[in-house]
Amino acid sequence: MNSVLMIFIDGVGIGKKDYKFNPFFKNGFNTFTSLFGSLPSLDNKLLVGDSKYLFGTDANLGVKGLPQSGTGQASLFCGVNVPGSAGRHFGPFPLTSTVQLVKDKHLLTHYSKKNNGQCFANAYPKVFFNYLNSGKTRLGVTAKCCWLNKFRFNKVSDLRQGNALTAEITNDRWNQNLNYNLPLIKPQTAARRLLRIAAQHKFTLYEYYMLDHLGHLRIKENFNQILNTLDLFLFTILTEFDKRKTTIIICSDHGNFEDLSIKMHTRNPALTITAGKFAEDLFNSVKSIADIKPSIIKFCR
Questions:
Q1: Are 258 and 15 a contacting pair, CB within 8 Å?
Q2: Are 208 and 169 in contact (CB under 8 A)?
Q3: Distances (CA, A) of 93 to 72, 90, 231, 250
Q4: Does position 271 have pLDDT exceeding 80, yes or no?
Q5: How many domains, the chain?
């Protein structure tokens, strides 16, 4: 079975070669330098490794202003230029006018109709289910899709059984902030868990939000640790996956983290990496974030 693993990283673009405000240059990022030979920048947006492509993807979609998560993620996951239709960028939640689109056209919805179709690998804590049970429904694009379609959300029991991941990879923030007592796992272990999950489904999605939080300066502690965790996680994914059967796409909805001189999003190209079986096809096809869904469906059969 051919599998697609999408790792969505909120809020990361390709920025300037800036050793003061671009953390990839200031701190280093082994995944880029070891697998692609360099760090991406606005002067060096395309990097090519062994069956791997790192490149910038348009997140502005012909609309003025700063791209936002609500319209950007709806465009990325649903394959539609949402800000172009709406005449504006909007976020962090999806526009009311796009709720039906998110329900019907999300990649998870598409693959839910196939055998061994899809898996949303993120787990959610009890406080999230309490929020839903209270009747509140302000959710991000993917969570909104799952809620509307009654797709099952992973719980802490799925984490303990090794069948899901927390949104920060290692379980540490669930323990620190939510009073769980979960075993800490290494980023390499988390990556291997995700690869195992992905091998069992045609399409697997994992969402990671910590870089956008760092970019907005919402989190100031453990900056280096958070970045290093992601680096180890991605390096393991990109060096240990089955290239014969699996296609990896790592993508984002807008820039932010790559320019810490400001606390807001950027108009920089969104970071995109494709690797594996259909990596070259996706690289040649994806020009904007709205191209990602149709390209996956077209090539990754």
A1: yes
A2: yes
A3: 10, 8, 28, 21
A4: yes
A5: 1
